[in-house]
What we know:
The complex is a heterodimer.
Chain A: E1 5-11, E2 14-20, H1 26-33, E3 52-55, E4 58-61, E5 74-76, H2 89-96, H3 106-119, H4 125-131, H5 143-157
Parallel strand pairs in A: 1-5
Antiparallel strand pairs in A: 1-2, 3-4, 3-5
Chain B: H1 38-42, E1 58-64, E2 70-76, H2 78-81, E3 86-91, H3 92-95, E4 124-125, E5 131-137, H4 140-148, E6 151-156, E7 179-187, H5 190-196, E8 199-207, E9 219-224, E10 235-238, H6 244-255, E11 262-265, H7 281-293, E12 297-300, H8 303-309, E13 316-324, E14 330-342, H9 351-359, E15 368-377, H10 391-409, H11 413-420, E16 429-435, E17 438-442, H12 447-458, H13 489-498, H14 508-513, E18 531-544, E19 549-556, E20 562-566, H15 575-587, E21 595-598, H16 615-642, E22 650-652, E23 656-658, E24 664-666, H17 667-670, E25 677-683, E26 688-701, E27 707-717, H18 724-744, E28 773-778, H19 797-800, H20 802-814, E29 821-824, H21 828-837, H22 844-849
Parallel strand pairs in B: 1-12, 8-29, 10-11, 14-15, 20-21, 27-28
Antiparallel strand pairs in B: 1-5, 2-4, 2-6, 3-5, 7-15, 8-13, 9-10, 9-12, 13-14, 16-17, 18-26, 19-20, 19-25, 22-23, 23-24, 26-27
Helix pairs in contact in B: 6-7, 9-10, 10-20, 15-16, 18-20
Bound molecules: FE2/S2 (inorganic) cluster (2 copies).
Amino acid sequence: xxxxxxxxxxxxxxxxxxxxxxxxxxxxxxxxxxxxxxxxxxxxxxxxxxxxxxxxxxxxxxxxxxxxxxxxxxxxxxxxxxxxxxxxxxxxxxxxxxxxxxxxxxxxxxxxxxxxxxxxxxxxxxxxxxxxxxxxxxxxxxxxxxxxxxxxxxxxxxxx
Amino acid sequence: xxxxxxxxxxxxxxxxxxxxxxxxxxxxxxxxxxxxxxxxxxxxxxxxxxxxxxxxxxxxxxxxxxxxxxxxxxxxxxxxxxxxxxxxxxxxxxxxxxxxxxxxxxxxxxxxxxxxxxxxxxxxxxxxxxxxxxxxxxxxxxxxxxxxxxxxxxxxxxxxxxxxxxxxxxxxxxxxxxxxxxxxxxxxxxxxxxxxxxxxxxxxxxxxxxxxxxxxxxxxxxxxxxxxxxxxxxxxxxxxxxxxxxxxxxxxxxxxxxxxxxxxxxxxxxxxxxxxxxxxxxxxxxxxxxxxxxxxxxxxxxxxxxxxxxxxxxxxxxxxxxxxxxxxxxxxxxxxxxxxxxxxxxxxxxxxxxxxxxxxxxxxxxxxxxxxxxxxxxxxxxxxxxxxxxxxxxxxxxxxxxxxxxxxxxxxxxxxxxxxxxxxxxxxxxxxxxxxxxxxxxxxxxxxxxxxxxxxxxxxxxxxxxxxxxxxxxxxxxxxxxxxxxxxxxxxxxxxxxxxxxxxxxxxxxxxxxxxxxxxxxxxxxxxxxxxxxxxxxxxxxxxxxxxxxxxxxxxxxxxxxxxxxxxxxxxxxxxxxxxxxxxxxxxxxxxxxxxxxxxxxxxxxxxxxxxxxxxxxxxxxxxxxxxxxxxxxxxxxxxxxxxxxxxxxxxxxxxxxxxxxxxxxxxxxxxxxxxxxxxxxxxxxxxxxxxxxxxxxxxxxxxxxxxxxxxxxxxxxxxxxxxxxxxxxxxxxxxxxxxxxxxxxxxxxxxxxxxxxxxxxxxxxxxxxxxxxxxxxxxxxxxxxxxxxxxxxxxxxxxxxxxxxxxxxxxxxxxxxxxxxxxxxxxxxxxxxxxxxxxxxxxxxxxxxxxxxx
Lengths: 160, 855
Ligand code: FES
Ligand code: FES
């Protein structure tokens, strides 16, 4: 169980070479091996969506993936969203609409929504609710999150 | 950027108050400024407790009882001690004398002492999930591996799972009936009231066990100074929240350490809602282990243990009787309540049942009231508060009772309420009950106006008689209740007039067919009469701003920036921003440059914390006082420096203090010398009472029992609003939690006391497709006269009335409001059975037969 495996992975554009236990989850790898604590863990059984990151562009749950599975792949986390000082338009929209309170679920929602908006630049409310239905937030009641994603879609279309 | 400059929002906001304010100048309070907390949390740069990393840190995990009720024969840790990476296993034998009971925080009572929980079970376990030992290892994985090898030999005892029936066994040998406490509240002559009654309406009502379940689980990092294991230095604990000062006192007493050598620090917190931040067994075990081992110890709860370890709440049964006169006026209310307390009393003691007893009469006039609550121990997780504790339950029971009364008397549901609501000219209104040791006196509010506005906002139908017995209006598919919402002009008018949602409201049919988590099955072809629609409403009063005090320390640092520290806590609700707005107005500077610190016991000597919707009320007023006085000092100092009278000075943008004749200096220049520092404690002996009306529209699938909430409206008054967007977030989040507790969430046990809701697959939290559009509006009429800012708490207003509104809407849809019992949550299984066992005229079978419920 303890023999270590090599993992070479690109996270937010930086290449990391690490030796990990095979049972280490991707979430724990990102958080504790790489110190990227923006990815949160709310259930560790694949239901809450807090741990969502992008794996080669696809939104995935890092709590039910092993670090060894992403060897040779590309990961993006919430830490890679903002461009230096300027927040991503989706992050701006979240703040404008009150789409976060405690912020614990927020990284998961952001990473899920970004992938969704790339595929659906002009969604309606139903589509947004459906796309986000795999993520849980206990604070906001979702209305503000849905509004923020719709607003971000229009900002992104206008090249904000 | 200010939120007011953003494009129209997808929800209703009330961006500002126009009425003259008692405090001036007022630039920030009342505006939806962007939250100061947001950037770090959006970037993933927040520091939650599991993000705290200390070199040399060990990891702990808790061995928990898998049994509901058993004697511990022995604990064998031989194998566990041989596990790789193991450092220590601490059981009752090792901690022995240190295992003192965790005291009650609110309203302590001598008689409750014998039911308190110790951090570890000593020789008997009383619920599944009770801590039995703490395992410490070099990694979390190693700790969990070792914990699995701890062998505990249990001798089973009969489990007690039902608080209402005769117990098969006592939990504590000294209390054979498991009755921990009996709470009584009464006013007026109840017997006379019932003797005079024209009609008595009864209802049995039950609310299911559920809890706060914040998205972040609990966690702690205890860091002893070098030498602390030998009794030198200090101990720092990261992760406490909500009531850090109180928890420090408890920890000090339990460890036998002086308080000044303990520092508790609240990091970013992923939600609390009443449950998180109380003093739990782990809050002792983890620091204790750190001190014993002389090493930092981290413990992060996993979700599975969270569900059986954190305070549960809400499990109550009501037997209600309402006496009415011939005009439908309430003469008296009798209530017998059973509150399932779980296996021990925790830090809340019997506060929750006490709140139910004190708040059950709600916003209605009545001459007499008598309530008894039996607080019964069972072999389940101990209970405590969860957002609107005791009130979510009692509001639901009362409002459902009123709908039954409306149905039986033939008086409209809204009309019956209007006849009985406390009128504004009766304010301040002495309720005649007490809560938290304080007499309940409603401070301000226009309850009838709130109801009228809520009806207008929601299009709650008034034209159709709600249920006149014998009127026969309900027999056909075309009756008002049975109409699809599209065909209900009042609803359309209601929402169109407010033109609130950016996107059209989702059609619930589409959602029901989309196969979301709560659907529970596939949908066949729609047969006529399969879906039933109903509306329900609930009026409520919310207690907020619980005293006795909160403090604020305010100072200018050497750069002239304002720093504010308080003992209140921020569990995600936006306290930092609200306090910065209040502080900014008080000094006359922009909020964005203000630093707000909280939740660290080293910042300020006294703190009470964040619960009971008190943060903005208590800390807000403390900040207001402290910074206002600081401003006076600043201006005095500037006056001396510039040779201008203080009255001629103004603090402006960029921290520039300007006087007449173009003379000015900066706050930084004034702050170069010490002295610009102020500590103030705001005291308030009486709470402020918010109020509101919740309206729900539901669609019931009679084939599956699924209840789809289609829309929720909420009309509320929370006094002066500091940040409308933050209040909106509190309202909407509260409503969503209310939907969970009304339809989805239940912490279930089987007959042996085995816990059945140990994962998010078994315990269903509402998701994006379960929570409908929420339309809310601030009545904005009744600032609290009890504090200088005029604010009331808003944190629990969203959830308080949802249970009642949803239960009434479902009864409306099924046209069975006259039934003698009802319950929450209305899960598909329960609703399906209700439709089957008690077919009302609106179910397909009954409609076909042309039947009608006997009333
Ligand atoms: S932590 Fe991964 S889905 Fe909940
Ligand atoms: S903002 Fe707290 S869980 Fe979503």
